[in-house]
Amino acid sequence: QVQLAESGGGLVQAGGSLRLSCAASGRTFSSLAMAWFRQAPGKERLFVASITSTGDSTYYADSVKGRFTISRDNAKNMVYLQMNMVKPEDTAVYYCAANPFVNLVKQGRANYWGQGTQVTVSS
After folding, report:
1. Which of 5, 74, 87, 95 has its CA 20 to 30 A from that of 117?
2. Distance in angstroms (rounded) separating the CA atoms of residues 10 and 120
3. Cα(92)–Cα(32) distance, rounded to whole angstroms?
4. Does residue 60 contact residue 52 with C-beta atoms inside 8 Å?
5. 30, 52 in Cβ contact below 8 A?
6. In the 8-state DSSP scheme, what is residue 56?
7. Contact yes or no for 116/94 (Cβ under 8 A)
8. Average pLDDT for residues 11-34, to the nearest whole number?
């Protein structure tokens, strides 16, 4: 069993930066592909970024490519989302998700989800 806990959300001005963290419990973290999703009010949950279990490959939604960076530290059971040049449309609750298979976690077919952290970008 794996539990995920996001942190680092908050209020940031447009053009600023924020780093989200996701802490994972359990000894299987290094075997899990990880992803970040976001959900704005009244909208569906959307894929943001993913990273393979070893960290050797990442993938981004077009809307965040070049601005956001996903990374992980398997020694610390952590995954991060560095958000730069944020825009008001980045406002959402951000969730981390895990699945052994990166192609599944990218589709939102996660075995585990965190509770989410709110990011609000002011214009």
Report:
1. 74
2. 6
3. 24
4. no
5. no
6. S
7. yes
8. 95
What residues are paired with 71 via a beta bridge? Answer: 80
Q: What is the C-alpha to C-alpha distance for residues 90 and 40, in angstroms, rounded to an integer?
A: 8
Output the pLDDT for position 104.
Answer: 94
Q: Is the pLDDT of residue 1 over 90?
A: no
Proportion of the chain above pLDDT 70, given as a percent = 100
Q: Which of 97, 106, 122, 104 is nearest to 15 (CA)?
A: 122
H-state helical runs in 21-106:
102-106
Structure tokens at 92: 């959402």
Count of Cβ atoms closer than 10 Å to residue 94 Cβ: 23
Interacting residues of 84 by C-beta distance below 8 A, sequence separation 6+: 17, 67, 68, 69
Q: Is the pLDDT of residue 26 over 90?
A: no
The encoded tokens of residue 123 equal 């214009």
Nearest partner of 97 among 20, 19, 35, 33, judged by Cα = 35
Cβ contact 38:93 at 8 Å: yes
Chain length of the chain = 123
